[in-house]
Structure formats: C-alpha cells, structure tokens
Amino acid sequence: MKSQENNKPLSSREIATMQPGDNTKSDIGENRGLRVSCSGSGRKTFFYRYRSPITKKLVQMRLGHFPTMSLAEARIKLQEFRAIRNLGRCPASELKSQQKQIEERSQREQSISNFTVKVMIELYLIQHIEDRLINGKLVPGARIPKGQ
C-alpha cells in the first residue's frame, strides 16, 4: 500500500518556504490536481495535472507563478478548469485554441492598421481601372490604356 506523505492541504507559507530541489507538492481534497513545483532558480509554479477526457492521457498545464498568483487565485483557476473537464472537454486544448484565436485577431487588427489611403488607392486602381488577367483571360479595365 502506498503511504501518503501529504495529508494536509497546501498553504501559502509552505509554498513560500519551498527551496530549489524540493519535491513537487500537491493539494488534497477538493483541490486535488493542483501542484506546485520549485525550479532550480527558486521560481515556484502552479500546475493543474489531470487525465484528459478526450485522449485519456495525463496532461499538465501551467496556471501561473507564485507570488504573482496567490494560492487562492490558483485554486479558483483550478476550479474553472475542473468545470470544463467535467463537461467532457480538455482545458489545455481549449486554452491553446483561445490563444490561437487571440493571435489571429491581433494579426488581422495589425493588417487593418497597415491599410492606408495609399494602399487603398493602389488596390482600387489594380482591381478596377487597369487591365488585368483573370483565369488567363485579359479583362479590360474601366479606362482605355492611355487613361490608365
């Protein structure tokens, strides 16, 4: 039988006193799955470790760093991700898709901000005024070649 060395919930004091090289500590009870590890540089990171309902594999996702994120905030975030998981969805894949959508939106906004009057005029001239090739056929523009 496996002995359980951690039989009490995590505390902020326990996390603050973690030293580099300490074992990963995990929470118990309703916050099961919340883990804290201390890197070699002394940075303490909160993780949520769970079994994915989609792939049935063990997944670990980073929630944040201590003390930027408090233990209470990490537990709130954990409960949000657990609710998503209980609905049969994978929180890590949803987080990745949200980040991808944010990146795409920022790229679109950046391309819109680069759309100047000069670019708009050039686009109009190319698409409507000048002669152009469409499917290998020459489509005449709105004006004769001399006026283009």
Write a compact overview of the structure shown.
This protein is 39% helix and 20% strand. It is built from 4 helices and 6 strands; from the N terminus they run H-E-E-E-E-H-H-H-E-E.
Give your account of this protein's structure.
This protein is an alpha+beta fold. The protein folds into two domains: 12-94, 2-Layer Sandwich (Double Stranded RNA Binding Domain); 104-148, no CATH class. Helix content is 39%, strand content 20%. It contains four helices and six strands. It has helices spanning 12-16, 71-86, 91-113, 117-129; strands at 25-26, 34-38, 44-51, 58-66, 132-134, 137-139. It has a four-stranded antiparallel beta sheet with strand order 1-2-3-4, with helices on one face. A hairpin with a 5-residue loop joins strand 2 and strand 3. The longest helix is centred in the C-terminal third of the chain and has 23 residues, at 91-113.
Output the keywords.
alpha+beta; 4-stranded antiparallel beta sheet; two-stranded antiparallel sheet; 4 helices; 6 strands
